[in-house]
Amino acid sequence: MEPETGTARARPRVSTIVVLFNSAEYVEACVRALGAVTYPDLEVILVDNGSDDSSAELAREVADREGLTCSISVLAENSGFARANNHGYELVSGEIILLVNPDAELYPDAVEALVDAFEDPTVGVCGCKLYYPDRKTLQHTGGYIRDNGLSMHYGVDEPDEGQYEEMRDVAYVTGAALAVRRELFERVGMLDPGYYPAYFEETELCLSARRLGHRVVYVPGARVVHHEATTTGKFSERYYYLYHKNRIRFLLKNFSWSFLLNRSLPMEERWLGMIEAWEQAVPLNKAYLVNLLNLPKILLARRRLERSLRAPRLEDTVSHFE
């Protein structure tokens, strides 16, 4: 006979890190949404990444108004998404780390759904169902990685008609709203600041987690509205440069030379024949050149990662997740 009291297992504390960078336009909605989260043990840490607008002050005002207890750390300059999140990590006390972009708005029950998913001990990283601001059109329901490193989203631009309501394993989930076990975050070395200022740091986190035998899962009950690429300008020349610069670095750092030569390079050649050259030629060539110049540093980072993980490479494609 079980005792009537003391049998309920304590739910884990969730530590949410939000990195602000000139986010005044979106931070009020983000913080208000965090204030409405129903999960009872939520810790909120805001890191202002050298903003020159009123992001930190506005975040504090909204948090006070919503009765949301949070810590705010202000950095002197923009240190990039990875380093700022790693700084926030130094302040957390929870067992689960939840990274949330300042232009993302969590639904009240989103954290509860993520915590439920972590009841399975094989799950290491959880991602959310992301909507565009109309709250009807899907932006992300998990993702996969093409042989040339292109990060692809399941469900993108589809109306949500219940077609992605099952939790499932995916290659990666976007860092717009991503939850990871604290011990795993430490084990993989947190986020790599080399992906400056943003893009592909969460993709590598997911790949490293899977290499260590942890599952990366999409959680449909964890719903989030995401405004997307508000700091870099989606489909701008700057966006394309940053995206491709870090995509190439991700490939060079994480995949075998055989894979790069026999699969990545041929696919890159095919893909180059399909894109609009006038749109991406300049930022893409600049990205190639920068990675060539930084190749010694990338190879050093590659060696450090391999020594740290000591785990087999995972060189799979979309076919493993469809």
At a glance:
With 322 residues, the protein is α/β, with parallel strands linked by helices.
Compile the SSE list and pairings:
Blueprint (H helix, E strand, L loop, with lengths): L13 E7 L3 H12 L6 E8 L5 H12 L3 E6 L5 H9 L6 E5 L3 E3 L3 H8 L5 E9 L6 E3 L2 E3 L5 E3 L14 E2 L7 E5 H6 L13 H11 L3 E12 L10 H18 L2 H16 L4 H17 L1 H15 L13
Parallel strand pairs: 1-2, 1-4, 2-3, 6-12
Antiparallel strand pairs: 4-11, 5-12, 6-7, 6-11, 8-9, 10-12
Helix pairs in contact: 1-2, 7-9, 7-10
Describe the protein.
By secondary structure, the chain is α/β, with parallel strands linked by helices. It has 2 domains: 14-226, Spore Coat Polysaccharide Biosynthesis Protein SpsA, Chain A, CATH 3.90.550.10; 237-320, no CATH class. It is built from 10 helices and 12 strands. Strands 1, 2, 3, 4, 5, 6, 7, 10, 11 and 12 form a 10-stranded mixed sheet that branches. Strands 8-9 form a two-stranded antiparallel ribbon. Helix 7 crosses helix 10 (295-309). It is globular.
